[in-house]
């Protein structure tokens, strides 16, 4: 597609909009496209939280439902001209404990949504995917390109890779207009405190140890949620049908560096760092080359240091949000089952 050609949408369905990146996208989209009608379809699993949308609930339509349920998908997509599929089971460690929900939501749910999109005649389907489909780059200084083969290594990554294959197949077999984003590790406000950054910030705020897997040298390319949202929005409007776009921040930050930066920012002692048993099958390096999205005009606003400082401040300012989440059974049980023996 020509760089100057921009698709226009009016009624847009955001699945998983009550989760972390989905909610950040809804906030971003409402300010970038104030005339949009946004429908959020979200099952409100342990990771979904209507508080994430509290400030904008009067401006959107919210449907509590399951993307893997055809009736829910059909209802949400009625009259829609675009769908952005954020809904997923998203945590690698949970996929190691039990992968069934990952297959059901990430693969079957994507299939149900694609079918509903085809029947509703939507003009564009955007699949929010991940750089984890490329697998581990450790031992190399390469950056994954969109043309690289998939080598997923965790059940989570495998389920996201499976979903992508279905999305691309629907583009080819049924002529559905599909685009895919492959985002890197994301952080920012409203992130459920199981991923490393919000887990470490909230543990540090409670003077609890920060569990660093293995030797803490695994690196990730951390990207702020609003930069991720802007990249997704750009691909929705300007991406070429049938294409995938990497979104990453060109950062390489290790687990130890994350822990040390958070402890330093909060004035907590280095003794809170705790090296624990490694994650099985731990991918030690992800890194994407985001040139293709940059060529569409994607510009990031956050460096890791600024983004992390603002994110820490958000958790400091919103203790009731994360204290409520951490008090719930789903969180306590992950802490017990996953970290109890480490
Ligand atoms: P999250 O776990 O915070 O939120 C997921 C949301 O999806 C929740 O609101 C949940 O209620 C909803 N959901 C789950 N199953 C559902 C179902 N069957 N039907 C409807 N809604 C359902 O996830 P996130 O971190 O915001 O990730 C959003 C998307 O971005 C996912 O597709 C994920 O694979 C992808 N992604 C995440 C990251 C990251 O670092 N978090 C990086 C790259 C890509
Ligand atoms: P995570 O936030 O779970 O994202 P992903 O595995 O999807 O990339 O983990 C990011 C990195 O942090 C990864 O190298 C594993 C590491 N990590 C820890 O060291 N301790 C933890 O408690 C968690 C959750 C992650």
From TrEMBL:
One Pfam assignment: GDP_Man_Dehyd
Cofactor(s) in the UniProt record: NAD(+)
Keywords: Lyase, NAD
GO BP term (any one): nucleotide-sugar metabolic process
InterPro entries: dTDP_Gluc_deHydtase (IPR005888), NAD(P)-bd_dom (IPR016040), NAD(P)-bd_dom_sf (IPR036291)
Positions of the NAD(P)-binding domain: 14-311
Annotated transmembrane regions: none
Source organism, top-level taxon: Bacteria
PANTHER family: DTDP-D-GLUCOSE 4,6-DEHYDRATASE-RELATED
Protein name in UniProt: dTDP-glucose 4,6-dehydratase
Species, as recorded: Meiothermus ruber (strain ATCC 35948 / DSM 1279 / VKM B-1258 / 21) (Thermus ruber)
């Amino acid at each position: 597609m020509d760089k100057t050609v921009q698709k226009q949408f009016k009624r847009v369905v955001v699945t998983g909009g009550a989760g972390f990146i989905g909610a950040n996208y809804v906030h971003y989209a409402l300010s970038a496209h104030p005339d949009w009608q946004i429908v959020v379809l979200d099952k409100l699993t342990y990771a979904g939280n209507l508080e994430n949308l509290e400030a904008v609930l009067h401006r959107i339509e919210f449907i509590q439902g399951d993307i893997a349920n055809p009736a829910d998908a059909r209802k949400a997509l009625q009259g829609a001209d675009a769908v952005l599929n954020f809904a997923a089971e998203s945590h690698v460690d949970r996929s190691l404990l039990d992968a069934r929900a990952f297959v059901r939501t990430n693969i079957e749910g994507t299939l149900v949504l694609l079918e509903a999109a085809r029947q509703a005649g939507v003009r564009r389907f955007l699949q929010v995917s991940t750089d984890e489909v490329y697998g581990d780059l450790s031992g190399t200084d390469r950056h994954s390109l969109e043309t690289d083969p998939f080598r997923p290594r965790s059940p989570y990554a495998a389920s996201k890779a499976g979903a992508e294959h279905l999305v691309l197949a629907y583009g080819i077999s049924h002529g559905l207009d599909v685009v895919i984003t492959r985002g890197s590790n994301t952080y920012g406000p409203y992130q459920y405190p199981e991923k490393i950054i919000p887990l470490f910030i909230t543990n540090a705020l409670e003077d609890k140890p920060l569990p660093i897997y293995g030797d803490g040298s695994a690196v990730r390319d951390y990207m702020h949620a609003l930069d991720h949202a802007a990249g997704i929005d750009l691909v929705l409007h300007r991406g070429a049908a049938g294409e995938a776009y990497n979104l990453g921040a060109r950062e390489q930050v290790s687990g130890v560096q994350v822990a040390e930066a958070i402890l330093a920012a909060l004035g907590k002692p280095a003794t809170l760092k705790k090296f624990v048993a490694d994650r099985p099958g731990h991918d030690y390096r992800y890194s994407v080359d985001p040139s293709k999205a940059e060529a569409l005009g994607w510009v990031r606003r956050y460096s890791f240091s600024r983004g992390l400082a603002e994110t820490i401040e958000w958790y400091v300012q919103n203790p009731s949000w994360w204290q409520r989440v951490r008090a719930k059974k789903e969180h306590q049980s992950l802490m017990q089952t996953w970290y109890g023996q480490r």
